[in-house]
Design a protein that fits this description.
CATH class of the largest domain: Alpha Beta
Structural class: alpha/beta
Distance between the termini: 19 Å
Low-confidence stretches: none
Strand order of the largest sheet: 2-1-3-12-11-4-5-10-8-9
Strand content: 15-25%
Number of domains: 2
Helix content: 40-55%
Number of strands: 12
Mean pLDDT: 95
CATH topology of the largest domain: Isopropylmalate Dehydrogenase
Bound molecules: nicotinamide-adenine-dinucleotide, manganese (II) ion
Number of helices: 11
Largest sheet: 10 strands, mixed
CATH superfamily of the largest domain: Isopropylmalate Dehydrogenase
Oligomer: single chain
C-alpha cells in the first residue's frame, strides 16, 4: 500500500513537546505494521515563523497542505503574536479551505482516571459531533450607534438545510458504524429561536432514514444537566457550532480535563485532508518545564489513524494509554504524578509496541 502522507504542524509552546510524543507513536505503528506506512513532513509554521516572515504560513501554504492525507496539529499561541493572527491566519483558513465541517470530540472515561464529576460505576463513552462551519459563529451582524446610549449589537445565526443535513447524516452514520443506538440532538426550539426550529426539522428528517437508531432531542440547558447526571446514557451527541462548543468543554471536564481531550476536524467526503489536534492551547505557563501531558495529542493521533481507515490501530493506541494510566507510575503533574512529558510518552509508546508484538505473535 502507498504510504499515507501526514503533515505535522507542531506550533508553539507545549505544541512541539507533546508532538514529539505523538511522533513516537507513529514510529511504533510504522515499525510494527508493514501495512501502515506513513511519510511525515514537519512544517514549522508557528509564531516564530510569523515573526520572521510576517505571515503564519507560506503564501501557497494551503496548496502545500492539500497534498496530504491528514494534518496533525499541536497547538498555537504566543504572547508576541496577537491571538487573532495565530487563529485566523493558520487554524481557521485550514478548517475553512478543507471544508472540515465536522468537529468530533470523544468523551470517554479512560481506565485509571477519576474526576469528581462522575460516579466510578458509570461507563462513559460517547462522542460529540459539533457543526463546525456555520451556525451561531457567523460573520453576519454588527454594531450600531457605537458609543451612544442606544448602542446595540446583532449577531445572526445561519442554519442551512444542507449544512444541518450533512452534520446530522454524519452523526447517524457514526452511530451506525460504532454500534451506537441513539443520537441526541442539542436544541433550543422551545424558545423563539427560528434557527433551531429548522435544525429540529432537518434532524428529524434525517433520522427517518435510520430506523435502527433512536433520536433523542434535548434542550441545551437540560442537556447540560443530563451530561452531569447521566453521562453514561449517551452514544452520539449532535450539536450546532455554539452548543457543541460549550458541550465539548463540559464533556472534557467530566472525564479528565484538557490534558486528556483530543479532537478531530473532519472533511467527511475526504476530498480534502482532515486535521487532528488536542483541545488545549500552547500552555505558555508550563512550556519548557516538561510538565505537559501528551495524552491529548497522542489520542488525537489515534483519531487520525482511525480516519485513515485503521480503527484497529486506533483502539490499540487508546488501550495503551489506558494501560499506562491504570499503572499510574509515570503520570504528569496535571494527573497528580511527577512524571515528565517524555516519560509518559515513552511509557505509552512502549505499551503500544508490546501490544503490537503480542498481536503479531498470536497472528492477529
Ligand atoms: P491552554 O489550553 O493553553 O491552557 C489552559 C490551562 O491548561 C493552563 O493552565 C495550562 O497549563 C493547562 N494545560 C493545557 N494543556 C495542558 C497539557 N497538555 N498538560 C497539562 N496542562 C495543560 O489555554 P490558554 O492558556 O487559554 O491559552 C494559551 C495560548 O494557547 C493562547 O495563545 C491561546 O490563544 C492558545 N490556544 C490555542 C488553541 C489551539 O491551538 N487550537 C486552543 C486554545 C488556546
Ligand atoms: Mn471551545
Amino acid at each position: 500500500m502507498k504510504p499515507m502522507k501526514i503533515a505535522i504542524l507542531p506550533g508553539d509552546g507545549i505544541g512541539p513537546e507533546v508532538m514529539n510524543e505523538a511522533l513516537k507513536i507513529l514510529r511504533v505503528l510504522q515499525d510494527q505494521d508493514v501495512s501502515f506506512q506513513t511519510t511525515i513532513n514537519i512544517l514549522p509554521w508557528n509564531s516564530e515563523y510569523y515573526l520572521e516572515n510576517g505571515r503564519m504560513m507560506p503564501e501557497n501554504g494551503l496548496a502545500i497542505l492539500s497534498d496530504y492525507d491528514a494534518i496533525l496539529f499541536g497547538a498555537i499561541g504566543d504572547e508576541r503574536v496577537p491571538d487573532p493572527i495565530t487563529i485566523w491566519e493558520l487554524i481557521m483558513p485550514i478548517r475553512k479551505k478543507f471544508k472540515q465541517y465536522v468537529n468530533l470530540r470523544p468523551v470517554k472515561n479512560l481506565n485509571g482516571i477519576q474526576t469528581p464529576l462522575f460516579n466510578q460505576d458509570q461507563h462513559i463513552d460517547f462522542v460529540i459531533i459539533r457543526e463546525n462551519a456555520e451556525g451561531e459563529y457567523s460573520n453576519s451582524g454588527g454594531r450600531l450607534y457605537e458609543g451612544t446610549q442606544d448602542e446595540l449589537a446583532v449577531q445572526n445565526t445561519i442554519i442551512t438545510r444542507k449544512g444541518t443535513e450533512k452534520i446530522a447524516k454524519y452523526a447517524f452514520e457514526y452511530a451506525r458504524k460504532t454500534a451506537g443506538r441513539k443520537v441526541t440532538s442539542a436544541t433550543k426550539s422551545n424558545a423563539v429561536i427560528h434557527s433551531m426550529k429548522l435544525w429540529d426539522e432537518v434532524v428529524a428528517g434525517v433520522a427517518k432514514e435510520y430506523p435502527d437508531i433512536q433520536l433523542e432531542k434535548n434542550y441545551i440547558d437540560a442537556l447540560s444537566a443530563y451530561f452531569v447526571q447521566r453521562p453514561d446514557t449517551f452514544d452520539v451527541v449532535v450539536a450546532s457550532n455554539l452548543f457543541g462548543d460549550i458541550l465539548s468543554d463540559l464533556g472534557s471536564a467530566l472525564v479528565g480535563g484538557l490534558g486528556l481531550s483530543p479532537s478531530a476536524n473532519i472533511n467527511p467526503e475526504k476530498e480534502y485532508p482532515s486535521m487532528f489536534e488536542p483541545v488545549h492551547g500552547s500552555a505558555p505557563n508550563i512550556a519548557g518545564t516538561g510538565k505537559a501531558n501528551p495524552i491529548a495529542q497522542i489520542w488525537s493521533t489515534a483519531l487520525m489513524v482511525e480516519h485513515l481507515g485503521r480503527e484497529d490501530l486506533a483502539t490499540l493506541i487508546v488501550n495503551s494509554i489506558e494501560d499506562v494510566l491504570s499503572e499510574g507510575e509515570v503520570l504528569t503533574p496535571d494527573l497528580g504524578g511527577n512524571g515528565s512529558t517524555f516519560q509518559l510518552g515513552d511509557a505509552i509508546s512502549n505499551k503500544l509496541s508490546e501490544r503490537m508484538e503480542k498481536n503479531s505473535e498470536e497472528g492477529l
